[in-house]
């Protein structure tokens, strides 16, 4: 198949569904080695965003491949209501220990959206089981992203998706996310975050607290906000508000979990704001198999079990192969201290990005935590003016980056209403030398783009 070129129009996969007609062909993957992806023409790309912030251990990791092979020789699939598996038990035990008290039971699924759906349904069934059947509304943030299945989309803050799919979704309230750049007039980051927390409480009171089931948020944002981090006080405020009104606090850590921000969970940065439910995926299997999990307390599971059990499930719950991968990934995260490495390399990456921002005319803001970073692109740093929408800056930068051997994850979200950014989130295995290569290449790409914009009179 290597030599075969199907045009995107007749391609079999996602390409034909999502890329505009006439879009340039994508490089065809041949293999991966560490933080590098190599195409069938032999070009090497540094995986600067870990695919969609998933490949946390890089590619071709020998210990993960060995675990996959060993598991495949034993059993790949055994339905969890019929058989226990050592892979499932080891994975759940490790995950529970790393996530810590109150989040030490895992409902294991195949990805982020399924884990979000499971979190919402778990919270709802728990409310019913504890005599609070009036609670069903899940408040989300605008902007925010929690997945593409209908329930997850309903709680996501994406106006465009809601315009198209709205009739299929149960409308739920959304409150503003505490942006840290391009703030509303007369606000500081702190005062805006306070206003956003107050908006949550107002929404709960407006809806009637007895009807509100949960509040869902990304503790460190992903693509929807470009690695948004709020002031510490915001996390504590939303925790207190949720507790005051009996609302479950759900952290969506599909991107930020599994060590990416320099703690095993991003929630661990704010111990005073411990969530009731956490959703993890992506880095949990480092992309080696489809895997996600909904983390809750042993006590909540006991209550549900006594009420007849969780009314929910999928064919691929706790898939044996995926659990074996997850167990091997968690083993590697601990033994190679990848959480510590994410914290250390995250600092270096931030320094290098901030240095780039002082000399590149099109970097407006650098933000994030650990190895979950983003740079926001602007036409004018002083006025924070965005690059004109018709330039579709993220797509263009992605193309330019491929020419310089850099694979970037970026896409315009919310039709560019909040700005344009690039995710810088390399594998947690990255070294200091590789951070330098990443930053040098990114600098060259942004220089290329700035020249292009200059020649077009945009900047
Ligand atoms: N939540 C967040 C914060 C995400 O970043 C994503 C994926 N980008 C999802 C949920 C959905 O995960 P999946 O694509 O695995 O269904």
From TrEMBL:
Q: Which CDD domains match?
A: OAT_like
Query: InterPro entries from the xrefs?
Result: Aminotrans_3 (IPR005814), Aminotrans_3_PPA_site (IPR049704), PyrdxlP-dep_Trfase (IPR015424), PyrdxlP-dep_Trfase_major (IPR015421), PyrdxlP-dep_Trfase_small (IPR015422)
Name the source's superkingdom.
Bacteria
Disordered as annotated region, ranges: 1-25
**Sorted alphabetically, which PROSITE patterns does this protein's record hold?**
AA_TRANSFER_CLASS_3
The protein's GO terms of the molecular function aspect are:
transaminase activity
Q: Pfam families, per this entry?
A: Aminotran_3
This protein's cofactor list reads: pyridoxal 5'-phosphate
State the family named in the UniProt similarity comment for this chain.
Answer: Belongs to the class-III pyridoxal-phosphate-dependent aminotransferase family.
Alphabetized PANTHER family for the sequence: AMINOTRANSFERASE, AMINOTRANSFERASE CLASS-III
Q: What is this protein called?
A: Aspartate aminotransferase family protein
């Amino acid at each position: 198949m290597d030599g075969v070129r199907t045009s995107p129009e007749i391609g079999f996969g996602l390409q034909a569904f999502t890329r505009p007609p006439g879009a340039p062909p994508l490089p065809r993957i041949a293999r991966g080695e560490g933080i590098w992806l190599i195409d069938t023409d032999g070009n090497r790309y540094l995986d600067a965003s870990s695919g969609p912030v998933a490949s946390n251990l890089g590619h071709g990791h020998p210990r993960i491949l060995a675990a996959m092979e060993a598991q495949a020789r034993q059993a790949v699939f055994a339905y969890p209501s019929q058989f226990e598996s050592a892979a499932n038990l080891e994975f759940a035990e490790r995950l529970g220990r790393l996530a810590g008290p109150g989040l030490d039971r895992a409902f294991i699924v195949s990805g982020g959206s399924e884990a979000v759906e499971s979190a919402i349904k778990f919270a709802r069934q728990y409310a019913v089981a504890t005599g609070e059947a009036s609670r069903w509304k899940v408040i989300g943030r605008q902007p925010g992203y929690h997945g593409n299945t209908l329930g997850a989309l309903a709680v996501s803050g994406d106006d465009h998706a809601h315009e198209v799919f709205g009739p299929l979704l149960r409308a739920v309230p959304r409150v503003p996310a505490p942006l840290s750049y391009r703030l509303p007039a007369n606000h500081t980051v702190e005062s805006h975050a306070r206003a956003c927390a107050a908006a949550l409480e107002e929404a709960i009171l407006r809806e009637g607290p007895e009807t509100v089931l949960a509040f869902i948020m990304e503790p460190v944002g992903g693509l929807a906000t470009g690695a948004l981090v709020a002031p510490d006080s915001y996390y504590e405020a939303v925790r207190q508000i949720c507790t005051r009104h009996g609302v479950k606090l759900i952290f969506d850590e599909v991107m930020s979990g599994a060590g990416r921000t320099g703690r095993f969970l991003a929630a661990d940065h704010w111990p005073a704001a411990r969530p009731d439910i956490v959703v993890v995926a992506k880095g949990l299997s480092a992309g080696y198999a489809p895997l996600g999990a909904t983390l809750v307390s042993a006590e909540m599971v006991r209550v549900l079990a006594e009420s007849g059990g969780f009314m929910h499930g999928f064919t691929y719950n706790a898939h044996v192969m995926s659990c074996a991968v997850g167990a091997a990934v968690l083993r590697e995260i601990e033994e190679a201290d990848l959480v510590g490495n994410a914290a250390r390399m995250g600092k270096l990456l931030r320094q290098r990005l901030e240095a780039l921002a002082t000399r590149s005319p099109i970097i407006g803001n650098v933000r994030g935590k650990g190895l979950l970073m983003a740079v926001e692109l602007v036409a004018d740093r002083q006025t924070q003016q965005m690059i004109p929408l018709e330039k579709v800056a993220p797509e263009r930068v992605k193309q330019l980056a491929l020419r310089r051997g850099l694979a970037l994850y970026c896409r315009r979200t919310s039709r560019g209403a909040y700005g344009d950014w690039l995710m810088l989130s390399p594998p947690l295995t990255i070294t200091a030398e590789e951070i330098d290569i990443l930053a040098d290449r990114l600098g060259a790409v942004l220089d290329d783009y700035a020249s292009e914009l200059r020649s077009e009179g945009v900047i």
